[in-house]
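Meet the record:
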Amino acid sequence: MDDFLIRALLGGFGVALIAGPFGSFVVWRRLAYFGDTLAHSALLGVAVGLLLHVNLTLGIVVVCQGIAILLFFGQRQRQLASDTLLGILAHGALSLGLVSLAFMEDVRIDLMAYLFGDILAITTSDLLWIYGGGGLALAGLLLIWRTLLAITIHEDLARVEGLAVDRINWFFLGLIALSVALMMKVVGMLLVTSLLIIPAATARRFAPNPEAMAILASLIGCCAVGSGLYGSFLWDTPTGPSIVVAACLLFLSSFLLPVRLVLKNVRH
């Protein structure tokens, strides 16, 4: 197998392992639009990275973290609903990124790669970002797992019990921002939310508990990455969209399986 395919598989599997647990919370907390907002802001991160002559992934991480902070404080005001605020941030950041890139006449970038991903171009440096940053994000999620789960189930009750709800929510948004930034290389800004949502939505039908759902979502994501890469190689189709199509097919196929039978096998 060629080296670039091995790196693509390793990068895709790393992203799938990250996306599983975070995607589970995205599904539970209905944060799909937030994921889209972070993905749209990534182009501004590319512009910042080019402007400051730093690693583009670092630029994306910084901008996504900034958007997460703006959202956290923006949710405290009562003039705008959260989805309205997300829409403003998403399209504002995307447009600002495009305008900034237009001013950089000496810079030429492949917009299609950022829109739909370029997993076949993953380098060793990208793998270090994915596994290093992803490991850090998963460690942070594991640290707050039980508290975040309690907040997700009933936020008001969690406040009454004295849990640091605002601090945990802020920390969680920051972790998702880091995860989305790392996933950009694989499926691109337009498809990144799908890798968070679809495997988790598929796993939700069969998982008997939250932990099992997170693990199963990661495994389904890995299957989607492997199948998408194989299909892309076989039929010469765009790799990022092929991965998402594979994830969708796995989701649709899950309805052909009897849930009770699967749950019984999982428990045993």
In short: The radius of gyration is 19 Å. The domain at 3-190 is CATH 1.10.3470.10 (ABC transporter involved in vitamin B12 uptake, BtuC). The first helix runs from residue 3 to 28. The mean pLDDT is 87.
